[in-house]
Design a protein that fits this description.
about 130 residues; mainly alpha; 6 helices; about 55% helix; disordered C terminus
Length: about 130
C-alpha cells in the first residue's frame, strides 16, 4: 500500500495501472486497474477492453447489490456512497458496448455471494 492516492485522489486508478505494470502484469490487467472506476460522470469515457469492462461491471454491481442488501438506498438528494453513479455507470457500459445484461442473472449471482433475498423488481427481456 502507498499513500499516493490518499494525497492525490485524482490519481486513483492511474497509480494502480502503474503499479500493475511495475509488477509485470499483462497490459489488459493494468488497464483494468485504471478503468474499473470509469465512467465517473456523463462526459467520461467508458471502458472498452473486455477485462476492463468485466472488472468495472463487477465492481459497480457488487457495490449496488451490497448496499441494497443492507437496505442502504439513495434517497432524495442524498447519495453519500455514489450508488446513482454506480448504477448509471452500469447502464452506460452496457448501453455503449451493446452487451446483453439479464438483471435476474446478475442479481442471483450476487445474492449467492451475499446470501440475501433480493427483491424481484428488475426485469430483463431475455
Amino acid at each position: 500500500m502507498t499513500d499516493m492516492v490518499g494525497e492525490f485522489p485524482e490519481l486513483q486508478g492511474l497509480m494502480g495501472k502503474y503499479y500493475a505494470r511495475a509488477q509485470g502484469e499483462e497490459e489488459s490487467i493494468a488497464a483494468a486497474c485504471e478503468e474499473h472506476y470509469k465512467p465517473l460522470g456523463p462526459s467520461d469515457r467508458v471502458p472498452s477492453d473486455p477485462v476492463s469492462v468485466a472488472v468495472a461491471l463487477a465492481d459497480k454491481l457488487d457495490t449496488l447489490v451490497g448496499f441494497w442488501a443492507i437496505d442502504e438506498k439513495p434517497t432524495g438528494s442524498k447519495d453519500p456512497y455514489a450508488l446513482r453513479r454506480a448504477a448509471l455507470g452500469v447502464i452506460r457500459i452496457v448501453w455503449t458496448g451493446k452487451y446483453p445484461l439479464a438483471c435476474e442473472v446478475c442479481g442471483e449471482a450476487h445474492r449467492g455471494c451475499f446470501q440475501i433475498r433480493l427483491s424481484r423488481n428488475c426485469k430483463s427481456d431475455r
